[in-house]
Design a protein that fits this description.
The complex is a heterodimer. Chain A is about 0% helix and about 50% strand. By secondary structure, chain A is an all-beta fold. The chains are: A mainly beta, B mainly beta.
Chain lengths: ~120, ~120
């Protein structure tokens, strides 16, 4: 089954304790991205990656890091989480390239993160 | 910068009725994608329908159809024969791939409640 898998789905942590949210896709997609969803603010892009070893900032990258060492994986790293990073996080992937892209993003199930 | 506006924070209809959700957007681009995503209580982000701006024909997917008015920058979603399972948040989103980034610009969402 084609899917984007995020872990953990739920996490409660404390300020300053480093954490990683993993994202893996099995569709051989080049493009991957992270969004956060907050009430009243909608979804905002954190980082994106066009391919292995190619990443760039989205609209709200502060406090986050990413890496893309393998095509299928795109982990989101919070080095020193703070309460304002409490949010619902989505990973997404897409097939890109001339003549192949439909623009559709495939989303993971979301990760609810609470930072105390 | 592109913006997406959903003017109806919440709507409620009886099962089997038809409902239309509104979406307007602002862009100076000519070629782009538009999407409607559904987010049920499970929080999963599910693609409902997509439209490519260069196509004049309105997209349809079973009970879901859009009214795409490019000149007016309007992209409404019509749900026919509504079902209880259609209860969800519905998000309108705009995408203009740029410099390898397939970023979605999201509206604030419309909460749709289908009553039995």
């Amino acid at each position: 089954e084609a899917q984007v898998t995020q872990n953990p789905r739920y996490l409660i942590t404390v300020t300053g304790k480093k954490l990683t949210v993993t994202c893996s896709q099995n569709m051989n997609h080049e493009y991957m991205s992270w969004y956060r969803q907050d009430p009243g603010l909608g979804l905002r892009q954190i980082y994106y990656s066009m391919n292995v070893e190619v990443t760039d900032k989205g609209d709200v990258p502060e406090g986050y890091k990413v890496s893309r060492k393998e095509k299928r994986n795109f982990p989101l790293i919070l080095e020193s989480p703070s309460p304002n990073q409490t949010s619902l996080y989505f990973c997404a992937s897409s097939l890109v390239g001339a003549g192949r892209s439909t623009g559709e993003l495939f989303f993971g199930e979301g990760s609810r993160l609470t930072v105390l | 910068a592109q913006t997406v506006t959903q003017s109806q924070p919440e709507m409620s209809v009886q099962e089997a009725e038809t409902v239309t959700l509104s979406c307007t957007y602002d862009t100076s681009e000519n070629n782009y994608y538009l999407f409607w995503y559904k987010q049920p209580p499970s929080r999963q982000m599910i693609l409902v329908i997509r439209q490519e701006a260069y196509k004049q024909q309105n997209a349809t997917e079973n009970r879901f159809s859009v009214n795409f008015q490019k000149a007016a920058k309007s992209f409404s979603l019509k749900i026919s024969d509504s079902q209880l399972g259609d209860t969800a948040m519905y998000f309108c989103a705009f995408m203009k791939p740029r410099d390898g980034n397939y970023q979605l610009i999201w509206g604030a969402g419309t909460k749709l409640i289908i009553k039995p």
